[in-house]
């Protein structure tokens, strides 16, 4: 089967070795299957994402010998696409506005519990809101998020029997209800990661999602959104995260050494690929180029 894979970074910092490991894996699985490797920029959060990080990531990935079809999809340029999905869910009674602040949520959760991805499960306050007050606040333009009515989504035929397949982890079952009423459009950004990632994978024909194991828990929720929207179920390949010498996972916020810094220090693409766990990447790129 020819795989369409993608590397979908959020440009909130510079790429580090963990990103390279993930990108090279996506590239390899596509190349070996005669498929396509896509690059997608997940920049809906315009406060945290910065244009210079986008320019840098294109340059770093090209330096590593990667290439990808143009144009690259930049999520921030496609907000109307996500709005259409939200309108569809709203029309079907699967979405409701939530006016709660973080503080309201923390205070309302008498026995707070957490979703499989570690986020706080929403206690459902605004789901039970008086319709007249809701209409009044909406008309007044009061800031709000949009949440999925999880119970309503789980009542759709087939929602309780969802599964997915992971190349490394095998067949998996899903319990999306553990996430509660997740946010699909934020107060500050009119979309959410879960919505955009599933929409774009479907739109771009991604049939193998390669990403780190930190995002594995979210897959149950993504399968539900795919089911609700009638989008195809891709195959998945969640890979272990790279760790530093002390065993801590590499992360931008902890100041993991950037590829840019490695380049500046004189490392070659070969050395960087080897450090990311792909010592034969550069030769695989030239083999792939010869066979085209
Ligand atoms: N944009 C996400 C991130 O940088 C990855 C999305 C995904 O691979 O599903 O963490």
Overall helicity: 25-40%
Distinct small molecules bound, one entry per kind: glutamic acid
Which ranges are low-confidence, i.e. pLDDT below 50, for 5 or more consecutive residues? none
CATH top level assignment of the largest domain: Alpha Beta
CATH superfamily of the largest domain: HUPs
Strand content: 5-15%
- Provide the residue-averaged pLDDT: 95
Q: Mind telling me the C-alpha Rg?
A: 20 Å
The beta-strand count equals 10
User: Architecture of the largest domain, according to CATH?
Assistant: 3-Layer(aba) Sandwich
Give, in spatial order, the strands making up the sheet with the most strands.
Answer: 1-2-3
CATH third-level topology of the largest domain = Rossmann fold
What is the CA-CA span between the terminal residues?
18 Å
